[in-house]
Every structure is written in C-alpha cells, then in structure tokens.
Amino acid sequence: MALFVDSLIQFVALVLLFILLAILGVGFRGSPELGRWVLALYTVLGFLLYWGYFAIFETLWKGQTPGKRQAGIRVIRDFGREITVKEAIARNLLRSVDMIPGVYAIGIASIFLSPQNKRLGDYVAGTVVVHDRPPEESQPFWNTREDAEVAFGGIEKITADEIQMVETFLLRRLDLSPTVRQQSAQRIADHLCTKLEVKDEDRRDLENFLELVVRQFRKSARYR
C-alpha cells in the first residue's frame, strides 16, 4: 500500500513536470538549442524525482514517505534509532536491485525469506521497517519503578544524544523482533558500559539496565 501511494505521487509529479516543460518547449519552438535544454532538464529532474523521492522524504520525515505515513509504517535503524541521511540513501540505492527482474521480485523474495521482513536495501543500510504507533500509544512502558535506587558511577559522561538513543530504543522495542531487540539492547548496553561503572548484576537484564540509566540521567542536574 505504501509503495502504491508513493508510486502514484511520483507518476502524477512526473506528468505535471512533463506538461510544464512541454509548455516551455512550445515557447522555445523557434530555438532547437533551448528545446534540447528543456529535454535535458526534464531528464535530470525526472531522475531526481524518481531516485531521490524516497531518500529525501525518509530523511526529512524521520523514516517516512507519504505512502509510509498513510500505511502507518516507518523505517528505523536496527537498534531502534531514527535513520540518518546515510541510511536513507543506502537503502534506496539498492532499490534498483530489489526491482529486478520487475515488480520488485527480488525485494519481495528477500522480504519473505527474512525473519525481519527486510529487503536487500535494509540489509545494506542496517534498517528495518516497523509499524508506527499513534502518539497516544507511543509512550514507552517501563519494567523498573520510578523510585528505583541504583547509582551508576560516571553518569555525567553520558551525553543527551546517547540518552535519546536509549529512549528511542525503549520506545520502539515492541516493534522489533526478539532477536533484533536483544542484539540492539546488547550493543547499546556495551556502549554505555564503556563510560559507566557497572556491576555485573546491575546489567543482567539489559533493558532494565537501560531504563535505570535513563532514570538516573533524568534525575541528574544536567537533564533538561
């Protein structure tokens, strides 16, 4: 459904662009040189519209295109964080391969064979498509109590961006497969432990450990 909506938008945009440049071409009928420039401009703009459409929207709309927004899905990185320009471009450069030999045959086969329903572009970019919840359903659940008392040494070394990464993962974890969810929690926990003084028993449950780090950071004077 998302691909259908996006393809329809691209088709309409290409038709409108063709009509506009055709009108300009009629105006330049007496100048073959300008007519060729109009044709070249249409080719360039058409190429950018077709190949840049997905990457631009997924970058600006945090993993969504108009079609994905309509279908209620979103692209995120494997560990739950929002995609960047790098991931948006990488996953869409492989779109031409996914389309071989037509109607996204390779892409569809990859999705059916993948446990996380990934196409080739997702494997290369390290991304996954998940269902996007309405704002009222997007509040993260917590396993740990608000008054949990665990103090990690070195919490001042954690940055706001790193906490945002943890919170994004905690928000999206229910949308990830169990394997990806476990691997993502492990990677994030390993990263934080390079800065924190953590006892082995405190990180036995990785997601609880991440929740406690966020809670302590929130309570610190640096948190805004």
Biggest sheet, strands in spatial order?
1-2
Computed Rg = 23 Å
Number of domains: 2
Mean of all residue-level pLDDT scores: 82
Helix content: 55-70%
> Structural class of the secondary elements?
mainly alpha
Calculate the terminal CA-CA distance, rounded to whole Å: 40 Å
Overall spatial form: elongated
Would you count the extended β strands for me? 2
Percent strand equals under 5%
- What count of helical segments does DSSP give? 10
Describe it:
The protein is mainly alpha-helical and 224 residues long. The chain folds into two domains: 2-131, no CATH class; 155-219. Helix content is 59%, strand content 4%. The chain is built from ten helices and two strands; from the N terminus they run H-H-H-E-H-H-H-H-E-H-H-H. It has helices at residues 2-27, 32-60, 66-71, 85-93, 95-98, 105-113, 120-125, 160-172, 178-193, 206-219; strands at 73-77, 127-131. A two-stranded antiparallel sheet has the order 1-2. Helix 1 packs antiparallel against helix 2 (32-60) and helix 8 packs across helix 10. The protein is elongated. The model has no long low-confidence stretch (mean pLDDT 82).
What's the gist of this structure?
The protein is mainly alpha-helical. It has helices at residues 2-27, 32-60, 66-71, 85-93, 95-98, 105-113, 120-125, 160-172, 178-193, 206-219; strands spanning 73-77, 127-131.
